[in-house]
Design a protein that fits this description.
Helices cover 40% and strands 16% of the residues. Helix 4 (94-109) runs antiparallel to helix 5. The chain has helices at residues 34-42, 49-67, 72-87, 94-109, 115-145, 171-180, 197-208, 221-226, 252-261, 293-296, 337-342, and strands at residues 7-10, 13-17, 28-31, 153-156, 186-190, 213-216, 232-235, 239-240, 246-249, 266-269, 297-298, 301-302, 315-318, 325-328, 331-333. The protein is globular, with a radius of gyration of 20 Å. The longest helix is centred in the middle third of the chain and has 31 residues, at 115-145. It has eleven helices and 15 strands. It folds into two domains: 7-134, Up-down Bundle (Four Helix Bundle (Hemerythrin (Met), subunit A)); 139-345, Rossmann fold, CATH 3.40.50. The chain is of the alpha/beta class. The structure holds the ligand CSC[C@H]1O[C@H](OP(=O)(O)O)[C@H](O)[C@@H]1O. The ligand CSC[C@H]1O[C@H](OP(=O)(O)O)[C@H](O)[C@@H]1O is lined by residues 47-50, 158, 160, 164-165, 170, 197, 235-238, 248-249, 314.
């Protein structure tokens, strides 16, 4: 099992594995205030929908510590302002907004209490969100393992492992569970241009745990699927609409189309906190567009000529009709997605 803490609040600072540096170097990025947390999320020091939600929650605690000597009115104003800033650090992964809203609700509930009590409650809530995420991922893994056949060859995209969450992972957590339960699985991991979360992070986790795998260029996936070398595809999610349309790392939509053409089961694995109950379809999901240097450079080395324009969406939306099922901690959601997703609210 991966033995590292993706996110750890210790000695008054938030310690994050610097995922920009993996796998070549294992470094810890320390956030001493919420502004550094905002930077860490924006620059993808930490990334992965659940992980940025947990990180933002601790960012609110850092703000509370920073402002605890102000008057109550000023304290509340500044901490809620920090919530607003963290809320928009990245636009697509709904876990970020879900975590911040949970912290805002807590603060508004406790605003008559002492500042010290509010600070302690904020820390407890951030710890709770982190612990819940780990437990949720283990439930996702157990449910997901039920759809993984013996000797399955599994294709996955981006990184959805311990590095993308508090621990264990979502889609990669299902893969871990299948491996440790003796299913003799094999993994094809997409490198996942342009930030290479597959090559750098998923490969790091798979090698660390000796899970049999091959790293492939994103463009090789179609041939593997066509040639019958993939039994199931399982990916993560950043935001799921009521109808099951799912935003995930760029390249996911393309995989889903190929899977549909060749009848390969295509699963999403995500906590229910990734479901946005306020949107009907994927059309309403804001897709983050990132800096062009992510495409024109690799590890700081220019690979494209000066002057070329770039389109760099960080995510795409997979339509629900391409999705076999959505694996959550509450079980596997199948079609009709809207009806079955709404049942989660009951
Ligand atoms: C369980 S991680 C979910 C999701 O987040 C990743 O995006 P990013 O690396 O940009 O934060 C990717 O879309 C994963 O599938």
């Amino acid at each position: 099992m991966a033995q590292f803490n993706t996110i750890e609040f210790k000695d008054g600072v938030l310690k994050l594995i610097d995922q920009r540096k993996l796998p070549l170097s294992f470094e810890i990025f320390e956030c001493k205030n919420y502004r550094e947390v905002d930077f860490a999320i924006k620059d993808m020091v930490v990334r992965g929908a659940p992980a940025i939600g947990v990180t933002a929650a601790y960012g609110v605690y850092l703000a509370a510590l920073e402002y605890k000597n102000l008057t109550k009115e000023e304290f509340l104003k500044e901490v809620l302002r920090a919530c607003d800033i963290l809320y928009v650090s990245r636009p697509t992964a709904v876990n970020l907004m879900w975590a911040i809203n949970r912290m805002r609700d807590l603060i508004n509930t406790l605003k008559e209490d002492s500042i010290d009590k509010i600070c302690d409650a904020i820390k407890d809530e951030a710890d709770k969100i982190a612990k819940e995420d780990e437990n949720i991922n283990k439930k996702i893994a157990e449910h997901g393992n039920n759809i993984i056949p013996q000797n399955a060859r599994i294709l996955t995209h981006c990184n959805t492992g311990a590095l993308a969450t508090s621990a264990y992972g979502t889609a990669l957590g299902v893969i871990r569970e299948a491996h440790y339960s003796g299913k003799n699985i094999f993994v094809y991991a997409d490198e996942t241009r342009p930030r290479l979360q597959g090559a750098r992070l998923t490969a790091f986790e798979l090698v660390k745990e000796k899970i049999p795998a091959k790293l492939i260029p994103d463009n090789a996936a179609a041939t593997l699927i066509r040639d019958g070398k993939v039994d199931v595809i399982i990916v993560g999610a950043d935001r799921i609409a009521l109808n099951g349309d799912t935003a995930n790392k760029i390249g996911t939509f393309m995989l889903s189309v190929i899977a549909k053409v060749y009848n390969v089961p295509f699963y999403i694995a995500a906590p229910t906190s990734t479901i946005d109950f306020n949107i009907e379809s994927g059309k309403e999901i804001v897709i983050e567009e990132r800096d062009s240097r992510e495409v024109t450079h690799i590890e700081g080395i220019r690979i494209a000529p000066e002057g070329i324009d770039v389109y760099n969406p960080a995510f795409d939306v997979t339509p629900n009709e391409n999705i076999t099922g959505i694996i959550t901690e509450k079980g596997i959601i199948t079609k009709p997605f809207r009806e079955n997703i709404l049942k989660l609210k009951l």
